[in-house]
Design brief:
disordered C terminus; Rossmann fold; single chain; alpha/beta; 39% helix
């Protein structure tokens, strides 16, 4: 089985690539000349690499020639700031390119990694599931909007004859590059954080997302479907407290009120000016993190799905973080579950 992965050098994509290589798939992937392959370990040498990215149609056409399955995991994540145009280019136009080339190459099935942020929000704070319809509101994110628009490109492909399935993972936890994406929370808590957002969201182990994605790809009955993947609904206070205790830090005790929102936004703007980086703490981030989101993944659980316990995810991620700091590395990698590394017959 020949499989093509977008985003294979990133957080989720690297775990997916490692699992597929271990299961004896023939794996192809895109990379830039400067791509960091450190998260892939020994699996990097077993992947057939093509130079390019999803905004370059010619590189997609070369890489997807003769491919059976496509896992589209490449995306850009940013909240607020000046990144909207780039997110639209990658998350929407890039997805359209992947869908169009998959159609032209006769790919047997595509799996699109969307996000819970692309789901419509419930008006009464009830758990959100696959049936939610997107609607503009002050508590929606630009990233979520671009992922929703990316989903529309996949639905278009399905209407044109593409067999495809969409997954909507919640906040993905694990070990990776500590100053990127969702696992920045581990790095921030390790430095000591007195404040906590007052909202809640869903969390899921990166290895569970990989295992479920492969299962949905291999199932003959999941085409044209959308699945929420969410291990646990947890408040930010609970998550940050568990992380702090595992890291031998004092748990946060001060809720982020409107006053502290203004202070933190001002501080982060100064930090971004001096560092030349995008702001991390934006009005969008603070608005989203103060909302009590919960998610319902009964649809995927009906397939017999179980999740790694949250305490285990936290313990193993923190252990990887501590070890990486002792080794002078800016990243860590979790071992995969046995079922991820089972060889294909």
């Amino acid at each position: 089985m020949k499989v093509f992965i977008t985003g294979a050098t990133g957080f989720l994509g690297s775990y997916l690539a490692r699992a597929l290589v271990a299961q004896n798939y023939q794996v192809r992937a895109l990379k830039r000349p400067t791509s960091d392959l450190s998260l892939l370990g020994d699996a990097a040498a077993k992947i057939e690499w093509f130079e390019g990215d999803i905004t370059d149609i010619s590189s997609l056409e070369d890489a997807m020639e003769g491919v059976d399955q496509v896992y589209h995991a490449a995306a850009m994540l940013a909240f607020g700031g000046s990144s909207l145009d780039k997110m639209l280019k990658i998350n929407v136009e890039g997805t359209a390119n992947v869908v169009n080339v998959a159609l032209s190459k006769g790919v047997s099935k595509l799996l699109y990694v969307s996000s819970i942020t692309a789901l419509g929000k419930s008006k009464d704070n009830s758990p959100i599931d696959e049936s939610g319809d997107w609607a503009e509101s002050p508590i929606e994110s630009q990233y979520g909007h671009t992922k929703y628009l990316g989903e529309l490109e996949v639905w278009r492909g399905i209407a044109e004859g593409l067999d495809a399935v969409i997954i909507n993972p919640s906040t993905i936890m694990g070990a990776g590059r500590w100053e990127e994406g969702s696992i920045q929370i581990i790095h921030q808590v390790a430095k000591g954080v007195p404040f906590y957002p007052t909202g809640s969201t869903g969390f899921v182990d990166v290895r569970d997302v990989v295992r479920i994605a492969i299962q949905l790809m291999e199932s003959p009955d999941t085409g044209g479907e959308r699945f929420v993947i969410n291990g646990y609904n947890v408040t930010f206070l609970e998550m940050m407290t568990q992380l702090a205790l595992a890291l031998n830090q004092k748990p946060p005790t001060i809720p982020v009120t409107d006053f502290w929102k203004l202070i933190s936004i001002g501080y982060d703007r100064v930090r971004s000016l001096f560092t030349g980086s995008e702001p991390i703490i934006t009005r969008e981030v603070l608005s989203i993190s103060s909302h009590p989101y919960t998610y319902n993944d009964d649809k995927v659980r009906a397939l017999g799905i179980t999740y790694i316990p949250l305490k285990q995810t936290i313990a193993e991620s923190v252990a990887a973080y501590v070890q990486s700091k002792q080794d002078g590395k800016g990243f860590g990698v979790l071992g995969m579950a046995k079922e991820n590394f089972a060889s294909r017959s």
